[in-house]
Design goal:
Layout lengths: L7 E5 H10 L3 H12 L4 E4 L2 E6 L4 E8 L3 E9 L8 H15 L3 H9 L3 E4 L9
Parallel strand pairs: 1-5
Antiparallel strand pairs: 1-6, 2-3, 3-4, 4-5
C-alpha cells in the first residue's frame, strides 16, 4: 500500500514579497499551515481561511483545495486592516473555487511561471 500524498503548500508571488518585507519565514508559514490543518484558524467558508502570523501582528488569507494544497494569498498587518471586507471575501471564495479545478499540469505551470512558490516541499511542520 502506498503512503498517502502529503498536502502541498504554496505562496503567491505577491504574498512572498509581502512576507519577506514582514520578515515572516517559510518555516513559520509551514508551521502555520500545519496549525490550519489542525483546525487552529478561522474558517471563513468556501475554502478560505484566516490565520494569525508573527505573534499576532499579521493576518494571512489562505485558500485551500480540499486539503490537497494550500495557498497563501494575502497578508495584512492587524494595525492596518481590522478585517477583510465582504466583497474581498467573495473574491477569495471564487478564487478558491477556481483553484479547486486546477490540474496537476496547471499547478506546475503556475510554479514554472513564478506565480506560485512552493514552500514546505511536502514536509509540513508537525509540531504545533
Amino acid at each position: 500500500m502506498s503512503e498517502p500524498t502529503r498536502p502541498r503548500a504554496f505562496k503567491s508571488a505577491w504574498f512572498a514579497k509581502a512576507a519577506r518585507k514582514a520578515k515572516i519565514s517559510d518555516k513559520a508559514l509551514c508551521k502555520a499551515i500545519a496549525q490550519v490543518m489542525a483546525g487552529q484558524a478561522d474558517d471563513l467558508g468556501g475554502g478560505v481561511y484566516k490565520k494569525r502570523l508573527s505573534n499576532n501582528q499579521y493576518r494571512s488569507i489562505i485558500l485551500a483545495r480540499a486539503g490537497d494544497f494550500w495557498v497563501y494569498e494575502f497578508l495584512f498587518a492587524k494595525q492596518d486592516i481590522a478585517n477583510i471586507e465582504d466583497d474581498d471575501l467573495k473574491r477569495y471564495r471564487t478564487l478558491a473555487k477556481g483553484y479547486g479545478s486546477l490540474t496537476t499540469d496547471q499547478v506546475s505551470e503556475l510554479l514554472a511561471d513564478c506565480g506560485w512558490i512552493e514552500i514546505c516541499k511536502g514536509e509540513l511542520e508537525t509540531e504545533i
